[in-house]
Structures are given as structure tokens and as C-alpha cells.
Specification:
Elements lengths: L8 H10 L4 H4 L2 E11 L2 E5 L6 E4 L17 E8 L8 E3 H18 L4 E9 L2 E5 L4 E5 L18 E10 L4 E5 L1 H17 L6 E9 L3 E7 L2 E6 L20 E9 L6 E4 L11 H4 L5 E9 L3 E7 L2 E6 L21 E10 L4 E5 L7 H8 L5 E10 L2 E5 L5 E5 L9 H4 L8 E10 L4 E5 L19 E10 L2 E6 L6 E5 L20 E10 L4 E5 H16 L8 H14 L1
Parallel strand pairs: 13-15, 18-20, 23-25
Antiparallel strand pairs: 1-2, 1-4, 2-3, 4-5, 6-7, 6-9, 7-8, 9-10, 11-12, 11-14, 12-13, 14-15, 16-17, 16-19, 17-18, 19-20, 21-22, 21-24, 22-23, 24-25, 26-27, 26-29, 27-28, 29-30
Helix pairs in contact: 8-9
GO molecular function, one term: mRNA binding
Function: Binds mRNA; thus facilitating recognition of the initiation point. It is needed to translate mRNA with a short Shine-Dalgarno (SD) purine-rich sequence.
Keywords: Repeat, Ribonucleoprotein, Ribosomal protein, RNA-binding
């Protein structure tokens, strides 16, 4: 509170004498007093009342400082009560300093100015700070930019703070030393950054290492980030592989953000770029030696030289191992031969192949097992479209449903097979490019269609009944393993009364006429009825006329008689 607003000792005495009733007006105010004596740890202060007041000497000095008052000094004190039970005035130097300090601090807080203070005590969660009469709380997190292990050197010295929060009603003030340091560092950083340019080469000291890079100090309080990808042209899995804290390193300034003053640094940029001219150095189709540096779910990276890595996709690792993790084929640190499949210098990518440096087992199989040869293998898998049969070098060949049996449907024939069963199959086709081998099981046996020779539509054949069903009969054509055919009920006889399947028995020999034959679709249709009608027509044409009135029995009888006579 300013001196012009504080009543003097004489003025206060006059006002007090004028009206004792007005004492409430003067209590809780700050007035001027004079030190009239010092006794032990107390100062005697005359403020113009009937009696003098006593103030502890410690209230006349800052925390940690020596008392420097003497008799005759004029001081500001706070009138708590004009008279207590002992008839003494209750006054306080601390309260006076606090009132004055709050008025000053509120204005500084409003103007966002810094305030001077002294850290004088440690409390739970932080420290207490004397701000020239008012006590503030300094949280532990606001002491410094980095954690402080020993706050001793920071105590009992005057230093600047920023007020974060004030509440006079509760008497709470929260301050920060860290904010001041950050502002100073930001100003200093901006000054230093203004003198830096992108492309500059500087020496720095590694101050901190993280999983993604290292912070390098270029000047006191000014550091830049050296990202792990900018440390070396070669793969760096962790910055600690290259750097240690307190190492002095030479770096190049890659980028400066003018808004945030953040600095990006690089080390590899000080070395020649190994990717320049890489397409000429590693032409497509060329074979090279390298080392596996990293394995992922989709492949493995192989280092061809320092800073040059290529990817071997999992599909290019093995001719025969499919849908297996890359780690089951190669291991980190393993040296391998690879072939360059594709180079994109602009994107800094090289596609490599591992299997291309090995003999192609699909081509070897085609040479060893030409089409038409018979192989033996184990049923590895059964699917809805066929069987997979294991053959040489962990390869599989596929037997399609249609190649399981000459006469039965694939859905029926596949029921005869199970995993682990050893089967014989004929090689039908080999495609090394698509890595496919087509096999056939039914082709191992003779094709029943071959047994019918030059049979054609209209020919008569002798058949053996193999099954009797409601809709007709199943027969096998010929006597030497010919194909099966089905004669429908309506084709069993020209006479409707004789179109009964049950009149036939398995093993019966019958003659029928071929009414349809398509070797490609393996369609063979027979008819007893067609044969009978053809014989009738032939007999009519040879021995009589349909208009002559002779019965069919007469005609057939004449034909039979003629045959016997002949």
C-alpha cells in the first residue's frame, strides 16, 4: 500500500483521540510506525496508540536473510487490533508486507510480468516461495525444464518466477520457474536458429537417445533431432547401435521450421548417396551376394552393400514352400545369393528373388517325368475339386475330379480316397511358369472307350447286363472291358408290354443298336427297340411289302425259311 494512503503516527493518534468509537475504521489497516526499542527477538513499535506494539524481529527480514532494522527506523505495520486483553496493540509487519505484496503481485499477474522471489522451504509436492511478503507455492514439476534431483543450489537466492494462478480470498498463489526458463530458452533458441541455415554442417553433442532418434545439442540450450533413418544409409534398427550419449558428431542441418524453430539433422547426408546409379550397378536379371538384415511377415530385406537393401518378397523365396513365414526359410544375418527382379531408383526400391538362383524343380520334374509317364505319390489333401498328390521335392500335383474315374462321377469317385493313401497317377500336363502339375488317376487304366474300336452310330453291339433299375438297365458294351451304357426303359423293346426292366437279369447277353456316340463327351446311347425296328424294316424291304396284307410274322417266317434254305 502506498505511503500517501497510510496515516502517520501523529495523524492516527489525533484520530484515535477524537473518537475511540472509530477504532474499527483503523483496525485491519496498514499505518506508519517507529521502532523505539529492540528487546531480545522483538521490536517495539510506536504507532501513536496508548501502548506500543511488539513485532517479532524475523518479520523484518526476508527468509534466510539477517535482520537489519535499528531503533528510530520508520516501518509499515498492520493494525490487527488496537487493544487486546492485556491492553496492548496487536500489530504485524508480515501482514503489512503481505497486503502490499498482494497489491503489487495482482498488477504484475494482470500484466503477465515476471516476479522476483526466493525459494525458502520444501513442502509436500514442491516448495514455498517468498514473493516479497506473500508466500507462493512452487510445484515440483515447475522448478525446472528437466527433473531436478538436488534443489539446494536454487534455494535462498532471488530469482524470477511466473505467476500461474492467484486467489486472494483463499490466499493461494502458484508460481513457475520452469516457464521463465522455457521463455528464456525459446528466445535464446530463436536467436541461435536465426544464425543457422539449411545445409550447414555443424558439430554437436548427443544429449539424449530415444527409439526413434537422438537429440544433438548444437549450442547451449539448442538441439536438433537426428532421426534414426538419417543416421546412416544402411539399416539402423536402434540409434544406440550408432551413437552414445555425450558423443561428439558432425551433422548436417536438413530442415529448420521457422514457426517452431525445430531443427532436423542428418548424418548420412554427409556421405555419398549409394543409390545414385544403382540401376546400372544392379541390372535386372543379375545375380548378387547379400546378407539378410531384417525379416517381416511379407518377406526379407537383403543388404547388397552399405546403404543398399532390396526386398525378397515371400512369393520369391521358394519354388515349393508356399504360405509359410519367411523366417522358416531364411534367418537374420544369413548370407544368400539373390537375383535382381526390378529396380526403381527414384523410389529407392529393389525387388529381389531368392528362388531364381536355385534350380527350378518344376522344370526338373518336366524333364524327369514327361507327359504320359506314371508317378506314385501320397494323397496330401482332399478338396471339393480334386486331390493333391505329393511328388518330388515337396511339390504337389493335382488330380481333378474329372480325372479320377472313367465311368463314375468325380463326387462319387473321390469318396474312395483318404489322406496318406498311396496312388498311381499319369502326368497330364506340367506348367513350370505357373508351377502346376496336372495328374490323372483314371488315365493309368485303359479307357473303356478304346475297346469299342471303330464303332459308329447304327452299329449293333452285344452287351452284358450289369445292373437292373426301374428306369432301365445298365450294360457293358462288348466282351473286352468296353464302356458302360444305359438303355432306357422305353428303348428295351418295340413292344410296350416288353419294356419291363425286370425281365432282364444281371449277366444276360443282349444285342442293341448304337443310336448316339460322341467319343469326346464319352456319350454312348443304345437301344434294343431301335435294333428291332431296324430288323423289321429290313425284313419288310426284303421279303414283302407293308401293303401286301402279309403279317409281320409271315414276313419274318419267310425270311427265316429263306435263311435256312440258303
Amino acid at each position: 500500500m502506498s505511503e500517501t494512503l497510510s496515516p502517520s503516527r501523529d495523524d492516527f493518534a489525533e484520530m484515535f483521540e477524537a473518537s475511540v468509537v472509530d477504532k474499527e475504521t483503523f483496525e485491519q489497516t496498514v499505518v506508519k510506525g517507529r521502532i523505539t526499542g529492540i528487546e531480545k527477538d522483538m521490536a517495539i513499535v510506536d504507532v501513536g496508540l496508548k501502548t506500543e506494539g511488539r513485532v517479532p524481529l524475523r518479520e523484518f527480514s526476508d527468509p534466510g536473510a539477517e535482520v537489519s532494522i535499528k531503533v528510530g527506523d520508520e516501518v509499515d505495520v498492520f493494525i490487527d487490533r488496537i487493544e487486546n486483553a492485556q491492553g496492548e496493540a496487536v500489530i504485524s509487519r508480515d501482514r503489512a508486507r503481505r497486503e502490499e505484496a498482494w497489491e503489487r503481485l495482482e498488477k504484475q499477474f494482470e500484466d503477465e510480468d515476471r516476479v522476483e522471489g526466493v525459494i525458502f522451504n520444501r513442502v509436500k509436492g514442491g516448495f514455498t516461495v517468498d514473493l516479497g511478503g506473500a508466500v507462493a507455492f512452487l510445484p515440483g514439476s515447475q522448478v525446472d525444464i528437466r527433473p531436478v534431483r538436488d534443489a539446494g543450489p536454487l534455494m535462498n537466492i532471488t530469482q524470477p518466477f511466473k505467476i500461474l494462478k492467484m486467489d486472494k480470498r483463499r490466499g493461494n498463489i502458484v508460481v513457475s520457474r520452469r516457464s521463465v526458463l522455457e521463455e528464456d530458452r525459446a528466445e535464446h533458441r530463436q536467436e541461435v536458429v536465426r544464425d543457422l541455415n539449411e545445409g550447414d554442417e555443424r558439430d554437436g553433442v548427443v544429449k539424449n537417445i530415444t527409439d526413434y532418434g537422438a537429440f544433438v545439442e548444437l549450442a547451449p540450450g539448442v538441439d536438433g533431432l537426428l532421426h534414426v533413418t538419417d543416421m546412416s544409409w544402411s539399416r539402423v534398427n536402434h540409434p544406440s547401435e550408432v551413437l552414445n550419449v555425450n558423443d561428439t558428431v558432425q551433422v548436417k542441418i536438413i530442415k529448420i521450421n521457422p514457426e517452431t524453430s525445430r531443427i532436423s539433422l542428418g548424418m548420412k547426408q554427409l556421405q555419398p548417396d549409394p543409390w545414385e546409379g544403382v540401376a546400372a550397378k544392379y541390372p535386372m536379371g543379375g545375380k548378387f551376394h547379400g546378407k539378410v538384415t531384417n525379416i517381416t511377415d511379407y518377406g526379407a530385406f537383403v543388404e547388397l552393400e552399405d546403404g543398399i537393401e532390396g526386398l525378397v518378397h515371400v512369393s520369391e523365396m521358394s519354388w515349393v514352400k508356399k504360405n509359410v513365414p519367411p523366417s522358416s526359410i531364411v534367418s537374420a544375418g544369413q548370407e544368400v545369393d539373390v537375383m535382381v527382379l526390378e529396380v526403381d531408383e527414384s523410389k529407392r526400391r529393389i525387388s529381389l528373388g531368392l528362388k531364381q538362383t536355385l534350380s527350378n524343380p518344376w522344370e526338373s520334374f518336366a524333364e524327369k517325368h514327361p507327359i504320359g509317364s506314371v508317378i506314385e505319390g501320397e494323397v496330401k489333401n482332399i478338396t471339393e475339386f480334386g486331390l493333391f498328390v505329393g511328388i518330388d521335392d515337396d511339390m504337389d500335383g493335382m488330380v481333378h475330379l474329372s480325372d479320377l474315374d472313367w465311368e463314375r462321377s468325380g463326387d462319387d469317385a473321390i469318396k474312395d480316397y483318404q489322406k496318406g493313401q498311396v496312388v498311381q497317377a499319369k502326368v497330364l500336363d506340367v506348367d513350370p511358369d505357373k508351377e502346376r502339375i496336372s495328374l490323372g488317376i483314371k488315365q493309368v487304366a485303359n479307357d473303356p472307350m478304346d475297346a469299342i474300336g471303330e464303332l459308329k452310330r447304327g452299329d449293333d453291339v452285344t452287351c452284358t447286363v450289369t445292373a437292373v433299375e426301374n428306369g432301365g438297365i445298365e450294360v457293358r458294351v462288348g466282351t473286352d472291358g468296353g464302356p458302360k451304357a444305359f438303355i432306357r426303359k422305353s428303348d428295351l423293346s418295340r413292344d410296350r408290354n416288353e419294356q419291363r426292366p425286370e425281365r432282364f437279369a444281371i449277366g444276360d447277353k443282349i444285342d442293341a443298336r448304337v443310336i448316339a456316340l460322341d467319343p469326346q463327351s464319352r456319350r454312348l446311347s443304345l437301344s434294343i427297340k431301335a435294333r428291332e425296328l431296324a430288323e423289321e424294316k429290313e425284313a419288310v424291304e426284303q421279303f414283302g411289302s407293308a401293303d401286301s396284307g402279309a403279317s409281320l410274322g409271315d414276313i419274318l417266317g419267310a425270311a427265316l425259311k429263306d435263311t435256312e434254305e440258303g
